């Protein structure tokens, strides 16, 4: 019956990003990143990115949850839950404050040394995203960020510093968080200001191309430094259903998904497919792609696919369909079969099974579910742990479906990390009250609170899930 059990080395854990939890935005020689100029927004109101740090504006990521100073306490809690791995990212501006320096900032490297050592002390495998939604602000202002080919070399300098320093401590890497978000929210994903470039699509796909090349060269570099490294890509998996069984709706849905597969195709297969090329031609997109780029893409295909999965969407071929629902970076039509989160994201656990099948059928490469979780309002009653049964319900249903994908459908899934295992600053809204954690952090949307950590009910639940290797879900 062993095939009905998850493998013993399944990587259970949690995930955060540097900019959403570290805080200490100007400590240890750190430079200013795009996340540091993101003001607070709220549900239904996007965050404003200011040109520079402005007096009187509240920037939630500046202090975040102060993980920079409290990582030991937090990792001890992760260890108590039994984490096998912990996914975080590197704050680029800790290592290269402006981004175009030749030599890395030792204080920044030393911080990540301490952080990874702390994980390893408990047998927790660090899983590192090299770039997660922050770009050095100086590179945005001086070079136009990823609209400029020079970014490839700046990024590779970062990768070189990281791989050389940490290759014996960190085995699992991802090059860019949710690389397909660059065309959906270029400011958040890649520091590309609104209005940069003459044709938006041209500019964004060009920037994506530079990221593809940067990522491929990073994969090659990492493998050259240490062939044992596993270097993956990471995409937001925007599962979408056709609204009806009409062929038109299904065709439209297929075309929507094609735009996302373009990103995984290039990184997994190492080339632009004929369909991608036709899409560019149809839309008048002419990219600066050199012969060397094409060779680099081929030489740097990824070892695994990391995905974030929170929700699903619905697509219609009828443009005037107006029953819209908000989602993670994307909007769609209301799905009457699904419930929604407090932030209107449509909850679809079965969708995770479908997503995993779709990706595995397409690529036969291991998949790592590096983000899945529920952003919800937790009600704090003094002296009692937060009773987050809704989070337990969400996570257990998703894990159950992931198990079906693995044990019934034969999908190769390496691991699962709960997004925001500790409460952190929301990427889309800058709120603290959109909580994902199994550990509560006493901090509100105005930046008030003691920052004290507290176990929620889901803490004990997840501990049990990991202890039983996913056997006990309720
Ligand atoms: C993913 C991002 O898109 O979704 C994370 O990789 C983000 O950075 C997560 O935090 C949840 O989104 P939000 O907007 O609720 O923080």
Automatic annotation (TrEMBL):
Gene3D superfamilies: Glycosidases. Keywords: Glycosidase, Hydrolase. The active site is at 371 (nucleophile). Belongs to the glycosyl hydrolase 1 family. This is 6-phospho-beta-glucosidase. PANTHER family: 6-PHOSPHO-BETA-GLUCOSIDASE ASCB-RELATED (PTHR10353:SF122), GLYCOSYL HYDROLASE (PTHR10353). The keyword DNA-binding does not apply. Its EC number is 3.2.1.86. InterPro entries: GH, GH_1_N_CS, Glyco_hydro_1, Glyco_hydro_1_AS. Transmembrane segments: none annotated. It comes from the Bacteria. It comes from Paenibacillus haidiansis.
């Amino acid at each position: 019956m062993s095939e009905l059990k998850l493998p013993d080395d399944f990587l259970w854990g949690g995930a955060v990003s540097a900019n959403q939890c570290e805080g200490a935005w100007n400590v240890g020689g750190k430079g200013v990143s795009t996340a540091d100029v993101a003001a607070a927004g709220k549900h239904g109101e996007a965050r404003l990115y200011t040109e520079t740090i402005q007096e009187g504006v509240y920037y939630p990521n500046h202090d975040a949850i102060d993980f920079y100073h409290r990582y030991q306490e937090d990792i001890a809690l992760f260890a108590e839950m039994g984490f096998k791995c912990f996914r975080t990212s590197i704050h680029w501006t800790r290592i290269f404050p402006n981004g175009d320096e030749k030599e890395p900032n030792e204080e920044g490297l030393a911080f990540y040394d301490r952080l990874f050592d702390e994980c390893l002390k408990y047998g927790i495998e660090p899983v590192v995203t090299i770039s997660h939604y922050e770009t050095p602000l100086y590179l945005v202002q001086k070079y136009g960020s990823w609209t400029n080919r020079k970014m490839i070399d700046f990024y590779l300098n970062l990768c070189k510093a990281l791989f050389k320093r940490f290759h014996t401590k960190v085995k699992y890497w991802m090059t860019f968080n949710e690389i397909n978000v660059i065309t959906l929210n270029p400011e958040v994903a890649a520091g590309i200001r609104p209005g940069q470039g003459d044709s938006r699509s041209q500019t964004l796909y060009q920037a994506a191309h530079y990221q593809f090349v940067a990522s491929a060269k990073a994969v090659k570099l990492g493998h050259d430094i240490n062939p044992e490294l596993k270097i993956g890509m990471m995409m937001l998996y925007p599962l979408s259903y056709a609204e009806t069984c009409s062929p038109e709706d299904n065709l439209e849905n297929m075309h929507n998904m094609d735009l996302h597969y373009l990103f995984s195709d290039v990184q997994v297969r190492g080339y632009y497919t004929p369909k991608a090329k036709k899409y560019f031609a149809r839309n008048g997109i002419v990219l600066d792609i050199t012969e060397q780029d094409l060779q680099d893409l081929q030489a740097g295909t990824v070892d695994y696919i990391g995905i974030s999965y929170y929700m699903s969407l619905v697509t219609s071929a009828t443009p005037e369909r107006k029953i819209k629902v908000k989602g993670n970076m994307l909007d769609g039509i209301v799905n009457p079969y699904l419930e929604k989160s407090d932030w209107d994201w449509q909850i679809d656990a079965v969708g995770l099974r479908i997503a995993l099948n779709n990706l595995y059928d397409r690529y036969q490469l291991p998949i790592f579910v590096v983000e899945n979780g529920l952003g919800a309002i937790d009600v704090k009653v003094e002296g009692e742990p937060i009773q987050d049964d809704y989070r337990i319900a969400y996570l257990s249903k998703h894990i159950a479906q992931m198990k079906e994908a693995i044990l019934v459908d034969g999908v190769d899934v390496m691991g699962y990390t709960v997004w925001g295992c500790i409460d952190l600053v929301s990427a889309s809204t800058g709120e603290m009250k959109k909580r994902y954690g199994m550990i509560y952090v006493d901090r509100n949307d105005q930046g008030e609170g003691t920052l004290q950590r507290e176990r929620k009910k889901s803490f004990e639940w997840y501990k049990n899930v990991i202890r039983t290797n996913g056997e006990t879900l309720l």
